[in-house]
Design a protein that fits this description.
This protein is an alpha/beta fold. It has a domain of about 80 residues: Immunoglobulin-like, CATH 2.60.40. About 25% of the residues lie in helices and about 20% in strands. The chain is built from 17 helices and 25 strands. The strands form seven sheets. The chain has an eight-stranded parallel beta sheet with strand order 13-12-9-5-2-1-17-16, with helices on one face. Strands 18-19-20-25-22-23 form a six-stranded antiparallel beta sheet. Strand 14 and strand 15 form a beta hairpin. Bound molecules: 1-O-alpha-D-glucopyranosyl-D-fructose. The site of 1-O-alpha-D-glucopyranosyl-D-fructose has 14 residues, from loops.
Length: about 575
């Protein structure tokens, strides 16, 4: 059998992420919901995606928009009912689309009954389900510096919260309302596996596992190297910790083994290295199908971290992605993304939303989608949605941004400087409502949206794009269709071209005698790229170019190939 026939189904699949809060609201409360998603399935089918990854819809106090779960087996009433959920699964399946659920098991909500019980006292049978520790030796509870470790939370401040009643601290790598589960305790692990089996039995097709490389902490809890803020970097002690592979192999045995269905597992892994990623995704090791790595989305972080952005260094991006392409692919597998609910919009971040909105959105789409790996499209990305227009602190909704604002201002930074960083990099950028049409709230809701709709929805919306063959939407559709149609996209090998070029992103994919050439000008100036096209131009992003399908022959001229600002070209040569 050929490599293609042997390959798992998800190698030629495209995943679409739905962030339910902001997708579509059916009942006018201003918050998206399951019936809302159900009403927009035509959009997904038209786009041609194979899988929907649904961000959390479980019962939750919504301190982190559902990434703080208080009951893993029920649907938050904000989003609907279990009956709505069942209807959604059935409707997706009827259209041949799979459903992958978000699995948030590094932590729960502090309102989860497990934590409530755990918190009730040192003798609670669930005390050890979380990380409780006395104050640091020689310190009284609550005294500055009494935290059991000096780790800095991913959401600012220390990772430990004092519980006044017992004088002990609990660990929270994220918000204080997100206490970390103790995976050292086998009861915790088996309760999670049982819950996962329960969802699979309900027909879901896999899981996207939230910060799953943080579940194993070094039980000695060593301090991290302190920074200017006095807090330490705990990453070395909880990123890909000592037992993470063991836990994921156990999970695989307990949850996935023997299920003869087409499932997908993807682990979200901040700070994962490619060396670790190969281990996580090597099929022989039976851990995960693929991981989300973060190297490429950190390249524009400045010395002050994510809220201190700097211009993207294109050769550095190419070097990074090329390394991942080379190291994962034969063994292991990449997931490909620019956008998700935590990242700013790609057209605003790396493109030119003012002068070349359509061209730069489609240029970046082309670059990503034709790499080797499984591409992820985040809701609205297929429309070229832009960053939010959030001007004041009152406009912000995201707990990470709000915590950062508070801590940075307390530490003496100017509020306007902090806000500038949040405007560029904050997570609310990705969370404004999907722009369905030009009506008052963009067709998202009839009520007051929980976060402001982007004012550009008058011209930037799905309704306009459906009828425009040169739209961002149709470009994504064409890219997805190309992956489905041409095995070279899913299965070909990858060679980066022009690695040092400051403006052009070019690469070649080869499978047997077939060659796919992708050449993209990622700048607003015309350039000549030193590549030699052959075969047919099957896809381009300038008006009048083929939108996938019947191509026009490459004109046979030798390099260099002239490219207009933000022009993308894809050539297919069947040899
Ligand atoms: O995110 C994990 C994570 O580390 C970052 O992407 C995070 O969003 C933050 O921006 C770091 O600066 C996952 C979820 O995707 C995110 O939405 C949750 O808030 C987080 O875990 C906690 O569950």
């Amino acid at each position: 059998m050929s490599q293609e026939q042997d390959a798992p189904w998800w190698r030629s699949a495209v995943v679409y992420q739905v962030y339910p809060r902001s997708f579509a609201d059916s009942d006018g409360d201003g918050i998206g919901d399951l019936p809302g998603i159900l009403s927009r399935l035509d959009h997904l089918e038209r786009l041609g995606v194979d899988v929907v990854w649904l961000s959390p819809i479980y019962a939750s106090p919504q301190a982190d928009n559902g990434y703080d779960i208080s009951d893993y087996r029920s649907i938050d009433p904000t989003f609907g009912t279990m009956a709505d959920f069942e209807e959604l699964v059935a409707a997706l399946h009827a259209r041949g689309i799979k459903l992958v659920m978000d699995l948030v098991v590094n932590h729960t909500s502090d309102e989860h009954p497990w934590f409530v019980e755990s918190r009730s006292g040192p003798d609670s049978p669930k005390r050890d389900w979380y990380w409780w520790r006395p104050p640091r030796e020689g310190f009284a509870p609550g005294e500055p510096g009494a935290e059991p470790t000096n780790w800095r939370s991913l959401f600012s401040g220390p990772t430990w919260q004092l519980d006044e009643a017992t004088g002990e601290y609990y660990l929270h790598l994220f918000d204080t309302k997100q206490p970390d589960l103790n995976w050292e305790n086998p009861e915790v692990r088996h309760a999670i596996y049982a819950m996962m089996r329960w969802w699979l039995d309900r027909g879901v097709d896999g899981f996207r596992m939230d910060v799953i490389n943080m579940i194993s902490k070094d039980p000695a809890l060593p301090d991290g190297v302190p920074g200017d803020d006095g807090l330490g970097d705990g990453f070395p002690h909880f990123i890909c910790g000592p037992r993470v592979h063991e836990f994921l192999q156990e999970m695989h045995r307990e949850v996935f083994e023997g299920r003869d269905r087409d499932l997908l597992t993807v682990g979200e892994m901040p700070g994962v290295t490619w060396e670790e990623a190969v281990l996580f995704t090597d099929p022989a090791r039976q851990e995960l199908d693929m991981v989300f790595q973060f190297e490429h989305v950190r390249l524009d972080h400045g010395p002050g971290g994510k809220f201190d952005p700097q211009p993207l260094d294109l050769p550095a991006l190419k070097a990074s992605l090329d390394r991942w392409q080379q190291r994962l692919g034969e063994v292991g597998w990449n997931s490909l993304y620019w956008c998700n609910h935590d990242q700013p919009r790609v057209v605003s971040r790396f493109g030119d939303e003012d002068r070349y909105w359509r061209e730069s959105a489609t240029a970046w789409a082309t670059v990503l989608q034709l790499h080797r790996g499984t591409p992820y499209v985040y809701q609205g990305e297929e429309l070229g949605m832009t960053n939010a227009a959030l001007a004041t602190p009152e406009d912000l909704r995201d707990v990470e941004s709000l915590n950062h604002l508070r801590h940075a201002v307390e530490a003496g930074m100017e509020q306007q400087d902090v806000l500038a960083g949040i405007r560029a990099m904050g997570r609310d950028n990705a969370r404004t409502p999907v722009q369905w049409d030009a009506s008052e709230h963009a067709g998202f809701t009839t009520g007051e949206p929980w976060i402001a709709v982007n004012p550009n929805h008058g011209w930037l919306n799905a309704a306009v794009q459906y009828d425009d063959p040169s739209s961002v939407f149709h470009h994504y559709r064409a890219l997805i269709e190309l992956r489905h149609r041409e095995p070279v996209v899913a299965h070909g090998d990858f060679t980066m071209l022009l690695p040092d070029h400051e403006r052009v992103y070019a690469y070649e994919r080869r499978l047997g005698g077939t060659r796919l050439l992708v050449v993209v000008n990622l700048s607003g100036e015309p350039v000549a790229a030193d590549v030699a096209p052959s075969g047919e131009l099957v896809l381009g992003n300038l008006t009048g170019q083929p939108g996938s399908g019947a191509g026009t022959p490459a004109d046979g001229s030798t390099a260099p190939l002239p490219l207009q600002p933000w022009e993308a070209r894809v050539y297919l040569d069947r040899g």
